[in-house]
Amino acid sequence: MWTYRAPVADMRFLIEGVLDAPAAWAATPAFDGLDADTAQQVLEQAARFAEDVLAPTNAGGDVAGCRWSPEGVSTPPGFAAAYRSFVDGGWPALACAPEAGGQGLPQLLNAALYEMLTAANHAWTMYPGLLHGAYEVLLHHAVPALRERYLEKVATGQWLATMNLTEPQAGSDLGLVRTRAELAEGSVAANGAPVCITGQKIFISGGDHDLTDNIVHLVLCRLPDAPPGTKGLSLAIAPKWLPDGTRNGIRCDGIEKKMGIKGSATCQMRFEQAQGWLVGEPNRGLAAMFRMMNSARLHVGMQGVGHLEAATQNAWRYAEDRLQMRAAARPEGAPRAAADPIAWHPAMRRVLYTLQARTDACRLLAYQTALWLDDAEQHPDTAHRQAAADAVALLTPVAKALFTELGHRSADEALQVWGGYGFVHDYGIEQTVRDSRIALIYEGTNEIQAIDLMVRKTLDDGGQRATALRHRLASTLPAPGLHALSDAAHHQLNRWSEVEQAVVEGSAHDAEWPLRAADDFLMGVGHALMAWAWARIDWALTAGSHHPHRHHHHPALPAGARPAQAWQATARFGVQWLLPQADVHWQRASALALALPAATLAAVG
């Protein structure tokens, strides 16, 4: 009843027809030889894996869950075989450097891959989801001996990796981390120094499993003389199995019984004099870990897009097949029947187009972010790399928060299409509602993403990077007055600037204002970015339709993609029906007098 078909043709339209990514690849020597045809082959092969190998394990994995014993964790049936196929296909190494055993392909294609994986099976995707981030940490921060031992095995997925941050008393406040790292006798605190790690970590995705022979743990910890707070955190690497083949002092004490992603082992981890080595400089562990976390945040954003796509295509399919009542307005020539597809009824059309408009906008924003991430990492011009990095820094918290918020809310709204059947496990949508909820919480809650955008990405430089990003976005649209959807996007970019300026100026008089306004500010920015995306999609088709040799088929639309009229109708729906919500967010974000009652006033029991 629940199926997934990777929308490769729609992906290609956004990558080739809207973003013109092949031109960007051609300007980047690291992607020499990569063209649209090669990218198409990568996407089609990824789709085959997601549809034929991974998707069939989704529902069964939700029912079976993981099993814990003192010897370790067993994953659901089919998970290990799927992972072997994933590694054999070279997918973990897609965007890793060739010298580390990778394929050297763009982050953009890696983002599309992880969208497909999440849509097919979110719980399974949690296991390889941190591989690229771990690869980045080791590549940029580990000493040569550690890189030689671990980098290629992580890059190729031969060994999976974890990120051990959270402790019972330290959720989002990493300054409270207590896990100790004691230097081995005779060692001095330096990158690569051997340490013994002792402490407890919770909520560790893939902390133990049966998918790979070894697991590489990256652990936030504290040296004996470290200063308090986040400035005293170091990062260490500690494998489940040591180089001499002995078991390290690392144990999984149990797994969480969760609301969703039940096939993902969420582990309580215990480190008892576990042998490890520092990665990066002592007391600078958070800086190294942030490289992993930022990569993870984009991947979590792709989880939102994956859930959007899966919910959207299944809701449309069901609504077209389900016959209920007579529609008030029927398609011309439709045969008269006792009941019509619910997709014809206005209430359902509104839900379905809401899902599709959000999916289109979020996917384009995700791909644009990934494309600029490639520029930030690979472009030959230094100034170009820095400008792209600044754009990605601003877009990353928005992508993580906006996409996951809409991924979950949209799955919840999609359930309404099924009515009572949607509440039943057999129909699949209730699993998507449950699975998608976690993405709003981990890798920094969405509230923390909003604070990051407001405080660290906007107030810290008075809005200079944000101004540059708005100019960059506006430059990709036609000038005001030429295109209605672009005019709406220009208006939203201006509103973003106005509210930002008000908060920057007002924060000098009310230090709490930016924190009160942060959530609405992020969602206002998110709606402005969606307006930009809808305008870009519509303009790519509108501009092409005026060409004398372009009639019914726009060359930017690959075979199998939705027709141009469907894309444009969806984009117009987004601007007309969904964009007005931006005004609510902008109004609240700019309201200096909009105070929050103090917690001491709460009437609690």
Task: Furnish the topology, listing elements before pairings.
Layout: H1 8-18, H2 21-26, H3 36-54, H4 58-64, E1 67-69, E2 72-74, H5 79-88, H6 107-120, H7 122-125, H8 131-141, H9 144-155, E3 160-164, E4 180-183, E5 194-205, E6 215-221, E7 234-239, E8 250-255, E9 266-278, H10 285-321, H11 346-378, H12 382-418, H13 429-437, H14 446-456, H15 464-474, H16 484-506, H17 513-545, H18 564-578, H19 581-589
Parallel strand pairs: 3-6
Antiparallel strand pairs: 1-2, 4-5, 5-9, 6-7, 7-9, 8-9
Helix pairs in contact: 3-6, 6-10, 6-11, 8-9, 8-10, 10-11, 10-12, 11-12, 11-17, 11-18, 12-13, 12-14, 12-15, 12-17, 14-17, 15-16, 16-17, 17-18, 17-19
What's the β-strand tally? Answer: 9
- In what range is the share of β-strand residues? 5-15%
What low-confidence regions span 5 or more consecutive residues with pLDDT below 50? 547-553
What Rg, in angstroms, do the CA atoms define?
Answer: 24 Å
The general outline is: globular
Q: Kindly report how far apart the N and C termini lie.
A: 46 Å
* Multimerization status: single chain
Total of helices: 19
